[in-house]
C-alpha cells in the first residue's frame, strides 16, 4: 500500500448508525447531500474527534473514516489495521 498515506484529522463528524453499520461523515468540508447518507439509518449524532483513514493523494482512492476520542487512538487504529509493509519502510 505504498501509494496510500495515513491521515488523522481533528474535526466535527456525523456518526450515522445505519443498516450498513456506523458511518462517519466529516462536517464542514462540503455540503452534505442525501446521496452521501446510507439508505436506511436510525440515528445521527454530532461529535468532535480524530478521524483516521488511508488516502491516495491525487486520487479518489481512500478508506472509510473511523473516528476516535484521542489522536493516539486514531494512530493506533491505523497501525493495527493498516500496518506498513516491510518494503514501504526501506
Give a description of the structure.
This protein is mainly beta. It has a domain of 54 residues. The protein has 1 helix and 4 strands, in the order E-E-E-E-H. A 4-stranded antiparallel sheet has the order 2-1-3-4. Strand 1 and strand 2 form a beta hairpin. 9% of the residues are buried.
| Major beta-sheet overview | 4 strands, antiparallel
Assess the beta-strand content as a share of residues. Answer: 35-45%
Oligomer: single chain
Order of helices and strands: EEEEH
Spatial shape: globular
Give the proportion of residues in helices: 10-25%
Residue runs with pLDDT of under 50 for 5 or more positions:
none
What value does the average pLDDT take?
89
Structural class: mainly beta
User: Termini distance?
Assistant: 13 Å
Numbering strands along the chain, what is their spatial order in the largest sheet? Answer: 2-1-3-4
Number of strands: 4
Cα gyration radius (Å):
14 Å
**Continuous helix count:** 1
Topology:
Elements: E1 5-18, E2 21-26, E3 41-55, E4 66-68, H1 71-81
Antiparallel strand pairs: 1-2, 1-3, 3-4
Amino acid at each position: 500500500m505504498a501509494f496510500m498515506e495515513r491521515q488523522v484529522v481533528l474535526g466535527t463528524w456525523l456518526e450515522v448508525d445505519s443498516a450498513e453499520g456506523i458511518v462517519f461523515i466529516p462536517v464542514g468540508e462540503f455540503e452534505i447531500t442525501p446521496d452521501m447518507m446510507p439508505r436506511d439509518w436510525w440515528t445521527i449524532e454530532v461529535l468532535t474527534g480524530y478521524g483516521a483513514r488511508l488516502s491516495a493523494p491525487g486520487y479518489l482512492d481512500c478508506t472509510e473514516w473511523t473516528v476516535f476520542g484521542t489522536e493516539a487512538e486514531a494512530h493506533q487504529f491505523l497501525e493495527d489495521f493498516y500496518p506498513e509493509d516491510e518494503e514501504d519502510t526501506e
